[in-house]
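Forum: Protein Structure Q&A
Topic: Joint prediction for protein chains with partners

I've read a bunch of threads here and the consensus seems to be that you should model interacting components together rather than docking separate models afterwards. I'd like to see that in practice. Below is the full input, 680 residues plus whatever partners are listed. Could one of the regulars post the assembled result?
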Amino acid sequence: MAEPKTMQELRKDPIVGRWVIIAPDRLARPQGVSEESELSTDGFDPFLEGNEDATTPEILAYRNSGGPNEPGWRVRVVPNKFPAVTIDGDLDKRGVGIYDMMNAIGAHEVIVECPHREMNMSRLSVENIREVLWVYHDRLVDLKRDMRLVHGLIFKNKGARAGASLDHSHSQLIVSPIVPVTIQEELNGSKSFYDYRGRCIFADMIQQELATESRIVLESEHFVVFCPFASRFPFETWILPRQQSSHYESITKPMVEDLGNVMKTVLTKMELGLDDPPYNYVIHSAPFSSQDLPHYRWHIELFPRLSRVAGFEWGSGFYINTVAPENAAKFLRETEIDEI
Amino acid sequence: MAEPKTMQELRKDPIVGRWVIIAPDRLARPQGVSEESELSTDGFDPFLEGNEDATTPEILAYRNSGGPNEPGWRVRVVPNKFPAVTIDGDLDKRGVGIYDMMNAIGAHEVIVECPHREMNMSRLSVENIREVLWVYHDRLVDLKRDMRLVHGLIFKNKGARAGASLDHSHSQLIVSPIVPVTIQEELNGSKSFYDYRGRCIFADMIQQELATESRIVLESEHFVVFCPFASRFPFETWILPRQQSSHYESITKPMVEDLGNVMKTVLTKMELGLDDPPYNYVIHSAPFSSQDLPHYRWHIELFPRLSRVAGFEWGSGFYINTVAPENAAKFLRETEIDEI
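Posted by a regular:
Agreed with the consensus. Here's the joint model:
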């Protein structure tokens, strides 16, 4: 049976409906697929101001001076040099026997968060972090006009053990023609709750967390930061807006101002309290195609990489967390930092 | 709001319904929750024949000689010294506001696969591997009589980077009062397919894989081994029985005989072809409470740990796999091994 191949495909597991990007690396031999080692901190930095030629041409930059791909920028967006999805072509959705697939169309971009060589987002100024948050917004607003694309996922891998391949502080954006399964499950679960209870589960969570107090890391005008009741990982931390809003790209200026402070505070607490851990964060946001959804709320999930996800978790989706979220939240609450 | 605590709890995420075991380690400080380093291979081995006193008292052993907790065994089962679930107590299912929880009741056992210090299951004799497979069977048959328990998950972490904390070849069993979410999703998805198409999705997969050929690693009398169409990880490999059977504990003697050969062959190919990688395998099997399910089939999912699961995957359940399963299967097919 012939199964036509392109270099990059989206393939759907026929049992559970999970989409996978198959993005073969033409240069990688099987032996080359090895564990990443620690990042070198003294090598060439393609994200440094002045090295603009070392990246693919920029898509967006906030600038003090200079033209495209010249120095003078503050935050800069470039296409990922090794993209998991590509912007050119048709989706060509197709079935092959029981399997479903389509071309891996989409955008895979890198947000370079600062022109100087800083590894920790926590050490960027609050104003710098706010501009990163605005860049996230601007890229989503731009990309959602492409009708082939359905969802945008913004995420950050900090440190080699969290999947980063360069140490200069950066985040990534993948906009794709499918809704990632975790987001879909959140949409389904929160919709069921809304239909049954008539309320937003995220609003109920905030209400209960504020009443319980024990899992709260910090509160700000627009956000509640807490370690969730059923945390999968030690020190898993969520940043949840107080006001209903399902799409990150609907963020307002007062929220960005506030979130810059919140991000810097939480990341600094983790850096100081947990010995500068590798970490990931992911912004969970509703699909482009929907208007504001009353049952869903965008939020940030932040995971320091303190323990491996072992076999039990990989196979079952059933997690063992050795740090109770109440203890994690208390530790982070009590980790003192200098005024930011 | 008071939320009563026990040392170990099962907690359910209220949005997506994912259960998490919260098993705080009383001795671990936050700083102690660090990445595991490589396993030492010259330290004390509590699983070695003669060191029976170093483990908790055995639950089961296949023996040539000796009494319980004495030398003379071939395969031995002991309770995990740091169990994620415990066998004593009531479930005490309860709600706390919007959250659901219960006590983490269950069994967490370690299957010591050989009396001598061997790190690689691939180097055990076929007969030894068959006895390990029989021990899996015997423990499930015994534990499913406990009406509090709903599901048994057998898994193996090989190598520190796959989550192992001891190098002596061993596997683990966690029997719990809930169905892990990944198994539940497989049950739901395969049930939908069965209701709609009137066939078992696993049978259709085998049929298409055998017709396509490109993802087949090997075939035996009772099993088909292949890299699945939507593989999440490089060299992800599934071992699927040809005959319908939803519960591993229904395995027959001819199947065990055959599976011993298959396991040794596949693990040896991975050891030789992929430079002795860390790996995990998990046996997916139906809940105890059901009779044989026509829509589900037990199987083994095997993942060599060749790449990290980076931020994108953690947050989204959306995987990027850099090795096409067709290439992985071809590589494993063509990896030659000595006659086993």
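Chain B has two domains: 9-21+40-180, 182-334.
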